[in-house]
Amino acid sequence: MHILLVEDDNRTAQFIKKGFMQAGYAVDRAADGLEGYFMAQDIAYDAAVIDIMLPKLDGLSLIERLRKQQINTPIIVLSAKKTVDERILGLQKGGDDYLVKPFAFTELLVRVQTLLRRSQSIEEPAKLVVDDLSMDLVSRKVQRNGLRIELQHREFSLLEYLLRNTGRVVSKTMIMEHVWDYNFDPESNVVESRICHLREKIDHSQSSKLIHTVRGAGYVLEKRTDNV
To answer: For 154-176, how does the pLDDT look when each residue is reduced to its tens digit (9 = 90+)?
Structure first.
């Protein structure tokens, strides 16, 4: 999952970004409202966390612009202002939820997860399963054929994205947008490299291969009877 964070305070931004990354999310940070506006137009983020007090373009104006552009990314509004009128205004401008500073990151994380479930119109599964491969999203444990597989942080996020798109071809660009950060070099071969490492852990010595390359298009995770 890919989160846009629009926050001008460096300390707060680092605190939030670190928390999301530890939870397995890719995070892009914009330091002002105008930068956030352009980034939200370039990438289809899964959710956004936007502070109200921003330079160049304040948070409420940013949200209003995004909604006028038919960008329906779920948005949590952050603010130090605690009045009911301020919260109502944030929601009226197009925010989906409102969180007052200071806050515990665990609360922000839960609110984002709730918005994601709501936007997808489905109940968030506790486990993703394809054939004999399973991923527990709560304990973050991955198993294949009953054996535990140890994955690095980025490998876990990549596998989760493939599992959530089981049977669907996902391009390198799609993977980079959901698993890596905004400023990542599109010419890098990091996706190919990570897919290779993931295959070694998931498919090595298995009779049935699950991660497949679709030449010229991308990658797909699915069970194939021909084992190609």
So the answer is: 899 899 989 988 998 988 877 88
Residues 6+ apart with CB under 8 A from 106: none
Q: Against a cut of 0.70, is the pTM above it?
A: no
- Is-cis flag, bond preceding 186, omega within 30? no
CATH of domain 127-221: 1.10.10.10
* pLDDT for res 185: 60
User: Is 2-120 a CATH 3.40.190.100 domain?
Assistant: no
As a three-state string, the secondary structure of 83-126 is CHHHHHHHHHCCCCEEEECCCCHHHHHHHHHHHHHHHHCCCCCC
Collapsing DSSP to helix, strand or coil, 20 comes out as: helix
How much is the mean pLDDT over the chain? 86
